[in-house]
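P.,

For your records, the input lines for the assembly:
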Amino acid sequence: MFEALLEEAGVLKRILDAVKELVNQANVSFSPTGITIHSMDSSCVALLHLVLCDDGFQHFRCDASTVVGINFVTMSKILKGARNDDSVTIRKKDEDDFLTLILESKDGKDVVSFEMKEMDIDAESLGVPETEYEVTVSMDSASFQNKMRYLAQFGDAVTIEAEPSCVKFSVNGEQASGSISLRSSSSGDEDDGLDEGVKINRKNDVSLSFALRYLQTFTKATTLSNRVRLSLSNAVPLSVSYDIEGLGFITYYLAPKIDDDEDDEEDEEEEVEENVEDMDVKEEDDEEDM
Amino acid sequence: MFEALLEEAGVLKRILDAVKELVNQANVSFSPTGITIHSMDSSCVALLHLVLCDDGFQHFRCDASTVVGINFVTMSKILKGARNDDSVTIRKKDEDDFLTLILESKDGKDVVSFEMKEMDIDAESLGVPETEYEVTVSMDSASFQNKMRYLAQFGDAVTIEAEPSCVKFSVNGEQASGSISLRSSSSGDEDDGLDEGVKINRKNDVSLSFALRYLQTFTKATTLSNRVRLSLSNAVPLSVSYDIEGLGFITYYLAPKIDDDEDDEEDEEEEVEENVEDMDVKEEDDEEDM
Amino acid sequence: MFEALLEEAGVLKRILDAVKELVNQANVSFSPTGITIHSMDSSCVALLHLVLCDDGFQHFRCDASTVVGINFVTMSKILKGARNDDSVTIRKKDEDDFLTLILESKDGKDVVSFEMKEMDIDAESLGVPETEYEVTVSMDSASFQNKMRYLAQFGDAVTIEAEPSCVKFSVNGEQASGSISLRSSSSGDEDDGLDEGVKINRKNDVSLSFALRYLQTFTKATTLSNRVRLSLSNAVPLSVSYDIEGLGFITYYLAPKIDDDEDDEEDEEEEVEENVEDMDVKEEDDEEDM
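Structure tokens returned:
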């Protein structure tokens, strides 16, 4: 028996919006310490890691750890029946082959109850890349979303470069090429409690390119937090992370684009394969038919 | 000669929005007591009944009853030229083969004048089913609209069941099945003057299924009234009715879906044919290619 | 070396919106007195004339007059990176084959810098028709936009007629035909300083028809000014003009539609060809495949 209650359905709606665009369906782990998802997207380029801690729920009971295959598109449709301040209960009895969702208005007069078929999803268990990053950038999440959407007008890839007091996003398009430079508000630790401007924590130079299409999908999590944290190291997947207040976090990983034209990058490519562990690093050719 | 003046064009715009989606064109009766439409939709599944009383108009003159074929899509386009507080005059001279619409701003400076071709529509005259309903449910019209849109995400049909203090809308979909239960605010007469919550008036059990596609079209009338009244009896068309304040009402009728798999329903089918009079009751097979 | 600075990028965004829909790309003249565009649209039916005076810019330097081929769609995309109150700098060094655009936030922390490839556009230099117009109508620009959009629902062409105290826009459609009549607020000069209502300045009768598709495109300039000025003479292109406060103006020209059915119009047609000078007057046949 698993049962969890959230008093504000709004947050679960926003979590599903942040998940379903990248990962339509995945195995979800229910355990006594919370709910977690580790999943590649369907084209196996990006990785999503979601953690919701048990003590963030108003009620949480998990008698035994279990894994349930969930279609997030369907689950998001069901959640649309809830106002943001309705409560939502997720229930899975051991003998059921479905997940029950119950949405209830504060006055108890409106009750929506749905049974969602459990999916049988064949996916290998994935580790999350653990890296000591050379650069972390913390910035306003809506600003990051706007800038990725803006640059995607001109080209497929963005190059991110961190200087001591400035982070630069550049794009190389057919009609126009250019960059956005954001100067940091402070060069100190991005976790100093201040919640404004751009904060850069940098040990070494970093210059990496990423597919804008994926970065734009990651920004579906913008409604979950007004801050986003980018973590970069050369030849290692970028981490894009959003806190979910009082509940956990969602982090996306994306392997950098590797330029086939540069011969002296062979060493780096090997390094990539070591660092991303079981994460599939796609090369330029593969990404072009995304 | 027919001539009618409404000082607020906005209400006629909303009426046309409520009509044109279901019935593109129909014969409209102009008589000394008002304007009426009785029309099937083009697939002959649903029936629309509109009544606008003469005394709801600021000026109303009808020398002799007449029937005019009107294209409501065109008429709605013409009405878009009016601000909500412009006046609208509808005029039909006996010798004209067109309807004249005049939209005039309050200060008299802007005048829009259109002649709309009369349509020659071949339609038999329809009676409106008169039934003593077993259940009536009165509820907030926007809430009804939201709930029909919500359920249509999961399946084609909704089953409506009335219990003494609760009305239940349920859907059976491929990925998920569920229901919305709305508890009544009072079990008294729905016409007790209170204009809030859900009110249920119930003599017998009722459980009927309807095509969500049609119910969603009916909710185009939501802008006409903040209340909607559902009237149900077993094996009789559902009535969905909206008052138009000071002017009349619009009522939609929809035959229930009949489950072919249940052999013991043959008696009921006959009863249907008696009750709906000249209204064509479509069976599951016919509706599937809607 | 050319360099110009505008402190409010918003106005340049709106100018590009007003240009790019009709003219995707064109040669732009940079001279010590300002920036100008003369260009036909791609189907050679309408003419656009934009003038931005040097003293409307906060900084303006032009060492020598030059002509640069610019793609306005790309330029508009780049400008989207600016908030309305960001500054924008346009720079062209003599040796560069690109235009540089720099968008900077008021606090100097966000800088967007783009290089836009210069286009090689083969276009003959155009003169602007100079005419003493028989009728000028000044009216609210948003009202003009709404009315053109409204009439386009019914037909392809609008006929504009000016009476001493009234301007009439009429359309002849398959389903409905009608007109909008706007009474003037004053019959005096439209430049009397008052900024409200409709003002008509009329020497002779005028009745001309124009393609609504083009008039609708011209109204993309509505955000530049709350007034629009229409200037008409029989058998001469219509001029539709918007002031850009403190900076210049944008004027569109459109040749009237000529009715092939009327035999007695041959004289007028010849007059047309004289009056529009180097402007290509399209006849009904050509416009039908627009």
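Two observations worth noting. The domain at 2-117 of chain A is CATH 3.70.10.10 (Proliferating Cell Nuclear Antigen). Helices of chain A lie at 9-20, 72-79, 141-151, 212-218, 266-275, 284-288.

Regards
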